[in-house]
């Protein structure tokens, strides 16, 4: 009897299923890594705004602003005011939130909170230290 060379249909199916499983795992992990990278970008942006408020704005003015933007904090890269989904700080739906507190009639505030809604971790929060 002559021996046939090659793979059986069952062997090919098992290899195909294994390859498909590897592809699925790859894309799930890629999505997780991408989300963690976006979270890191959010933390970097919040930290930049925080340090600009604490080291640049407050010492110069003696108070915190009622809202922040690239005009108020020119020492911060303007791109950092935009979240990974393209929304600026203060716009509804943005993952970045600036909340001033204890403001007077001239919009001079004594406190603030900066927040970034993260995908893989709890909300990232920085508060004014004065």
What is shown here, in short?
The protein has 130 residues and is an alpha+beta fold. The chain has one helix and four strands.
Mean pLDDT: 93
Q: Biggest β-sheet, characterized?
A: 4 strands, antiparallel
Helical content, roughly?
40-55%
Unreliable stretches, pLDDT < 50, 5 or more residues? none
* Number of separate helices: 1
**Shape type:** rod-shaped
Strand content: 15-25%
Q: How would you describe the overall organization of this protein?
A:
The protein has about 130 residues and is an alpha+beta fold. The protein is about 40% helix and about 20% strand. It has a domain of about 90 residues. The longest helix has about 55 residues. The radius of gyration is 25 Å and the shape is rod-shaped. The protein starts with 8 loop residues before the first helix and ends with a strand. The model has no long low-confidence stretch (mean pLDDT about 95).
List the helices and strands and how they pair.
Elements: H1 9-61, E1 64-65, E2 96-103, E3 108-116, E4 124-127
Antiparallel strand pairs: 1-3, 2-3, 3-4
Observed structural traits:
130 residues, alpha+beta, four-stranded antiparallel β-sheet, 4 strands, 18% strand, rod-shaped
């Amino acid at each position: 009897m002559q021996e046939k060379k090659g793979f059986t249909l069952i062997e090919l199916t098992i290899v195909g299923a294994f390859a498909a499983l590897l592809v699925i795992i790859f894309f799930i992990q890629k999505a997780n890594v991408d989300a963690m990278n976006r979270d890191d970008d959010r933390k970097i942006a919040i930290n930049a705004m925080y340090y600009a408020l604490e080291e640049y704005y407050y010492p110069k003015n003696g108070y915190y602003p009622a809202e922040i933007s690239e005009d108020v904090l020119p020492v911060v890269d303007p791109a950092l005011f935009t979240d990974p989904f393209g929304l600026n700080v203060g716009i509804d739906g943005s993952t970045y939130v600036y909340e001033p507190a204890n403001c007077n009639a001239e919009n001079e505030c004594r406190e603030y909170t900066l927040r970034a809604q993260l995908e893989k971790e709890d909300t990232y929060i920085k508060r004014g230290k004065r």
